[in-house]
Design brief:
Blueprint (H helix, E strand, L loop, with lengths): L15 H14 L4 H8 L3 H8 L7 H11 L3 H4 L7 H12 L3 H4 L14 H22 L2 H17 L5 H13 L9 H10 L3 E4 L10 E3 L4 E4 L10 H13 L8 H19 L2 H13 L5 H8 L3 H16 L3 E7 L4 E6 L23 H4 L10 E7 L2 E11 L4 E9 L14 E3 L13 H7 L11 H4 L12 H13 L2
Parallel strand pairs: 1-3, 6-9
Antiparallel strand pairs: 2-3, 4-5, 4-8, 6-7, 7-8
Helix pairs in contact: 2-3, 6-8, 9-13, 10-13, 11-12, 12-13, 14-16, 15-16
Length: about 500
């Protein structure tokens, strides 16, 4: 992850292979040998060779000198795209041979000298692409996805859901864009994109499989003309697209890598929409008044309830000395995502995964659906074998099914939150099956032999996990879209 401070410029990770190829491209175009360029910028030929081969990062002073001698801007050298097709293939081949999958084959590393024909190079890269595709397809199973999610949840729990490096980068970008406070405007997001070299373009023909597409070659981020259902606003989509560049992401090497990148871009977007320093000040004031409320935090920054609830868990332990839980649950009780560092007893499978597990029907996340009026937040204390927990719940409806967003704390910390005086209380003894899974004897006797339901077929049972370089994206549709829009401007 990037490492910067709130007062420094945002650090965009440099791909040394691309940088080296671009330096070589402009050096050859200028008619200079390595030795001649080295003499002009004051470095030995061997050091310059290491830079062009992507094995050494030049200091900014040297980079400025190289750009001056080649009569180009430093920005031209630092562009994230390869200078030509041949260089792009050479870079891809070198990176492919560094992957764990290739190293496990114990095959020699092949270089790409000038004598290697373009056709041979294309064939070798094509074979590596197919090897990577088959590796991803083999790993793309529900079990693999659950394992990856479990690892990420453990990673975040160890860090109390707080990633300071990404926080610093977000704060720095906001400072550069002169964001002074309040809800982050669409205009400020556009300014942030411009400072990174991108233009936001709104189109109505994005591929169905994509929420946004970034054209790295032409510096464009394509977005839909309106928000997606389910809370994905345009500001968040744009920030997520920018995050891949800011955080120096490469193509995902596995489904687990894809999920980790998705976590990081979501975190970056939240850190921009609800900046750390202003959010902490707001929450600390609310805690001092014993009046922390998700809805107040949500409204102060103009975000969705879910985004506000999850963002509070990023900051609560680090800055408020509070441990919390966050759960998103479908109306049928299945967990979509969850986080806890307050001891909340979440249901897990044998591998420790919580996604897809059924939450106890006595928990507030589910009892909230029993209310006639679901407009306001619902508050409840739940007694469990692990202790008593206070929870605030907001329900909503997606295209397929209702859902609830729960955020809460252990009993002793409820005193800091609005809704702590609720009279709603429930008792859960799960995982004891007699808590809510087994029907009582009277019901069983009455209906056991007189009921035959037709179970709803869940779509995920028949659907494979998405595969591809970017899981779920139709590459053909994406490339056709980019070509169409490139030729139309």
């Amino acid at each position: 992850m990037p490492d910067s401070s709130a007062n420094s410029q945002p650090r965009v990770e440099t791909d040394l292979l691309v940088l080296g190829k671009r330096i070589k491209h402009y050096r050859v175009a200028a008619g200079l040998t390595l030795e001649r360029l080295g003499q002009r910028v004051g470095v030995v030929t061997s050091a310059l060779s290491l830079i062009e081969n992507g094995r050494r990062e030049p200091k900014l002073k040297l980079l400025n000198a190289i750009a001056r001698e080649l009569n180009v801007d430093v920005a031209d050298l630092l562009s994230s795209s390869a200078p030509d097709l041949r260089s792009s293939l050479e870079i891809e081949l070198e990176k492919a041979q560094k992957t764990p999958e290739y190293k496990a084959l114990q095959l020699p590393t092949i270089k790409a000298p000038k004598t290697l024909s373009d056709e041979t190079l294309q064939s070798m890269v094509g074979l590596h692409r197919e090897l990577a595709r088959r590796s991803r397809a083999a790993a793309a199973t529900p079990e693999e996805a659950r394992r990856a999610n479990t690892q990420i949840r453990a990673f975040m729990r160890e860090r109390d859901n707080y990633l300071p490096d990404i926080e610093d980068v977000a704060e720095s970008l906001l400072d550069r864009a002169e964001h002074s406070g309040g809800a982050l405007t669409h205009r400020t997001v556009a300014v942030m994109a411009e400072q990174l070299g991108f233009t936001l373009i709104f189109v109505d023909d994005l591929p169905q499989s994509a929420r946004s597409i970034t054209d790295l070659a032409n510096g464009r981020i394509y977005l839909p003309p309106a928000s997606f259902p389910g809370g994905h606003g345009l500001r968040s989509l744009a920030l997520q697209a920018m995050a891949h560049v800011v955080l120096g992401h490469d193509r995902p090497s596995s489904y687990a890598d894809f999920l980790k990148q998705r976590l990081e871009i979501n975190y970056f977007a939240a850190a921009c929409l609800m900046p750390r320093d202003r959010s902490v000040e707001f929450l600390q004031n609310a805690k001092a008044s014993r009046n922390i409320a998700i809805e107040d935090f949500r409204d102060a920054f103009g975000v969705t309830h879910e985004a506000a609830a999850h963002r509070i868990t990023n900051l609560a332990t680090e800055f408020l000395d509070l441990r919390m839980h966050f759960i998103r649950v479908k109306a049928d009780g299945s967990i979509i995502r969850a986080y806890e560092n307050d001891g909340t007893p979440l249901p897990e499978n044998e591998d420790g995964a919580v996604e897809g597990q059924i939450l106890c029907r006595k928990w507030a996340a589910r009892t909230a659906f029993n209310r006639q009026n679901r407009t306001n937040e619902f508050y409840q204390y739940t007694d469990t074998p692990a202790g008593t927990f206070w929870t605030a719940v907001q329900t909503g409806t997606s295209e397929s099914m209702g859902f609830s967003i729960s955020t809460g704390v252990a009993f002793d910390d409820a005193k800091w939150f609005r809704g702590r005086d609720t009279q709603y209380r429930s008792k859960s003894t799960c995982p004891d099956p007699d808590c809510c899974k087994n029907p009582d004897n009277e019901l069983r006797a009455r209906w056991e032999n007189n009921a035959w339901p037709s179970a709803r077929m869940h779509a995920h049972i028949l659907s494979p996990l998405p595969t591809g370089s970017f899981p779920g994206i139709d590459d053909t549709e994406m490339y056709e879209f980019l070509s169409r829009h490139e030729s139309s401007t």
